Every structure is written in C-alpha cells, then in structure tokens.
Amino acid sequence: MTGKASVRDVAQAAGVSVGSVSRVLNGNGYASQELRSRVLAAVKALDYEPSFAARHLRTGRSRTVGYLTTDISNPLLAAHFSEVEQHMHAAGYSMLIGTTRNQHHRDRLLVELFETRRLEGIIASLSMESSDPAEDLFAKADLPIVIMDRETASPRDCVLIDHRTGLSLAVRYLKQLGHRRIAFFGPKESIRPGREKLLGYQEGLAEAGLAFDPALVCTLPSMDSSRAAMKQMLALKQPPTAVIALGTRLLSGALYEARKAGLEVPHDLSVIALGTPETLELMYPPPTMLRFNTALSAETAANLMLDRLEGHYAGEARRVVIPMDLMLGESCAPVRPGR
Fold this sequence. Notes:
With 339 residues, the protein is of the alpha/beta class. It has helices at 7-14, 18-26, 33-46, 52-59, 75-90, 104-116, 163-176, 192-208, 227-234, 248-260, 294-309; strands at 64-69, 94-99, 121-124, 145-148, 157-161, 182-187, 217-220, 242-245, 270-275, 288-291, 319-322, 325-327.
C-alpha cells in the first residue's frame, strides 16, 4: 500500500466494519477482546495514524495521556517511554511527556499542567515520595493514574520492579566468583528503587555470609556522578574487587575512576550494571547486567491505563511486580588470588 492508510483500510485489513474500528479506537461502545486485538493488529501493520485533532473536535475528548518521568535523557527511561507510547498509540491515544529533572516542585507543576490540558490519564514516575496523604499530588485528580515504581500515600494502580530480588541475586553471583569486597552504587533511598536496591544488596551480603561495610556504599541522585565516591573506595586499605552500579552516570563515573587508576574490567574489577542490552550496547566488555524488562513494564503500564480509559476495569487499585533477572556478560571474573 502506498500513501497514508485510512480507517477504511484498517477495517478491510481487520475484516470488520468501519464502525467497529471506530468503537475500538474511540473507546465508544462495546468491543470484544478478539475484535480489539484484530483492529489493533491492523493498525500496527498499516502504520495507521488517527487524526487526534479531528477526533477531539468530534468527541470532546483529548485522547491524550501524560507521561511524567524524572530524566528523559536517561537511556533506560527514554526506552521505557518509547515502549509505552507505542502501546498507547496503537490504541488510538497520543502522549504528552514531562520531565521533572528530579526536582519535587516540577512534579506538582507538571501534574497541574497535565490536568489543565484535559489529559485523560497520567503515567507517573515522581521525583519524590511521601507517606502523608496531604502531600498526594493526585488526591483531587479525577482521571486514571498509573504510578511507576513509587510508593504513594493513597492506593493507585502501580507497576513495581523487584529490585530487591535482583540485587540479592547479583551479590550472590559475585560471591560465587570469590568476591568479598563488593561496592554498591545506587540512587537515594528517598524513592522506592533506592530503598529496595539497598535492601537487596544488604540481604545478598547476609545470605552470602559477607559483612556490610558502609565504606563500600554510595547512594546519589541519579543525575550525579560517582567519580569522587569511587576514588575514595579505591584508596581504601581493602578496595572493592567488584562493583554493582545501578545508573548510567553512577556506572560511568565508577568506570572512569577505575580505568584512571589502571584497573581493567574484568581482570582487576568485576562490574554488574543495570539496564538492557540496547542501553548498554556500547560498554566493553559486554556487561553482566541486572536486566530491566522495559517491554513488560511498559506493556503492563499501558494495559492498566487502557483498562481504566476504555471502561474495562473500575475496581480497586492494582499492584503489578515485574521481575528483574541477571544476564551474564563478560564484565565479571573470579577474584584474583591475594585480593
């Protein structure tokens, strides 16, 4: 097919009526799961792009969902947004993105902006957390909310990552290679990922029979560099022989100082990173990583949102936990004798 696909093209490809396509894409009236799947498959195959402006004028709905994230320059977060946007677009929704730069006041500003723009839902990864219901930014929101990997004072649909199990697995793997001095670089404990990662690290040490040493722990905002902390660790009487670095800048800063000190990965220093094969493809040697399943996390977030938007679910808040697994690469090796 040449030229831009029309709604009639989608209907023909799916073997349904134009009205059925309209029901699926506009969320008006009943559409079975089988019908919805056929229409969305045709939309994807034809690369059909609905006219959001025309639909807004006709229905009074924006068909737009907000996506709030902390740092879109982070390759992992950018990949997640891209996956979510694909799912939402296939269902006939556009997305408006806002980044907080880890500044709490921008959380509030962007939520207010999304609400004034008549967005129909918000998928949010806030820069801060609070157990005080009075601090709930969505307390008065009359639209579906999906929270990404954060704890909130009030129950919300949320998608959480099992950082704790992943970190424990990483520590135990390094212990099997003979490492006893394992450094941890992670985000601040003010948000759930930081707390869960540190707990997993501590639990992994305990399970491996290793002592917890605060001198081997560095927690920083995700946009800060770990260079100074790594330099201090390498100056210790017993420096680390392995590093778990859970952030793009945390990883790059640690590796910079290690290489500056003349250490080679994995001969002198074993490294475990956080990411996906795509976000870490430039690292050499190919890293052993705690894999963040962006595809599953994004699909889950989009489905939770679409269930609410299209009237398929109106019940209590749902909580979905996404597992994290360890993918072996070439950045870890047995500890050298005498270290």
